[in-house]
Amino acid sequence: MKNNNAQINKEPKTSSRSLALTALEDFNGFAIYHSGRFVLFAVSFNTVLIVLLIFYFVIQQGLPFFKNFDTIEFFTSKQWYPEADNPKFGALSIIFGSLYVTISALLLAVPAAILAAVFLSEIVSHKIRNYVKPVIELLAAIPSVAYGFFAVLVLAPFLQTHFGLSTGTNALNASLILSIMALPTIISVAEDSITAIGRDLREASYGLGATRFETIFKVVIPAAHSGIIAAIVLGMMRAIGETMVVWMASGNANQIPSPWWDLTQSVRTMTATIAGDMGETSKGSPHYQSLFAIGIVLLAMTFLLNIISEYFLASAGKNSRKK
């Protein structure tokens, strides 16, 4: 009894002391919480501000071109002679070149990327997947110039020698190397989308008598289509925005291939044009403004692709939560 009374007498002291400490901790927690919120807000605000400033700078530098020159000619003419006595600013071949190598790269990368994503998500064990996926994602960390050197020093001589081409720096070379660069992005996002599909859907398919591969290709992949489309769009964004690789590998010929499906001909892209010509122009000149006009087109394309990818990623998230 004495021990119990002693414990009872001690309890109020401990309780009052803990209350005093809690009040101090609450004040510190309040300060830390709101300081953290302010830091996060400042970082987020600065990020948005930087993006808006980039938009403003590109548009502010390129908009005078559309006011002073023929916009229709810019989008429909193939004549790009910005430094001639009678300058021509037809960017059709340049815009076509960017879309040409990007779509060609996706045609090469998407089937392989989806099969790799299915392999990682549905076939191999989690242990092997945990080793293989980081290695694939590590490909995205390789500098673009390293891919460019590989395209020029390895792929170009190989294509020229084994296929009897006049030059190895062409649309095929650029498409091949861009497809390799797009693989990590497409594989990673597509694999996450396939993995997010609920196990119940797979078990229901097995219960109806479907085989493993029928379940994968007729049930799982269609269910994950939003995430897979988002992965493809993100891969397209990666490919269309590359500069150094296409500058080194595409041949930089201002032309539309004839016939158009001939990948062995050289092309020129928007990013390569901006990078190659910017150092040769004077600020404020028509040539300078035309490069920023191309930048506006490129910015609009990537912005549109980003909106599309966000839409499909949001759809994939909703579908995974429902399942």
Describe the structure in your own words.
The protein is mainly alpha-helical and 323 residues long. It folds into 2 domains: 2-68; 75-322, Orthogonal Bundle (MetI-like fold). It is built from 12 helices and 2 strands; from the N terminus they run H-H-E-E-H-H-H-H-H-H-H-H-H-H. The protein has helices spanning 2-68, 71-76, 92-123, 126-138, 144-162, 171-195, 199-207, 212-223, 225-240, 244-249, 270-277, 286-322, and strands at residues 80-81, 88-89. Strands 1-2 form a two-stranded antiparallel ribbon. A hairpin with a 6-residue loop joins strand 1 and strand 2 (88-89). Mean pLDDT is 87; it is low at 10-17.
CATH topology of the largest domain: MetI-like fold
Low-confidence stretches: 10-17
Beta-strand percent range: under 5%
**Alpha-carbon distance between the termini?**
59 Å
Helix-strand category: mainly alpha
Provide a quick synopsis of the model.
This protein is 77% helix and 1% strand.
Topology:
Elements: H1 2-68, H2 71-76, E1 80-81, E2 88-89, H3 92-123, H4 126-138, H5 144-162, H6 171-195, H7 199-207, H8 212-223, H9 225-240, H10 244-249, H11 270-277, H12 286-322
Antiparallel strand pairs: 1-2
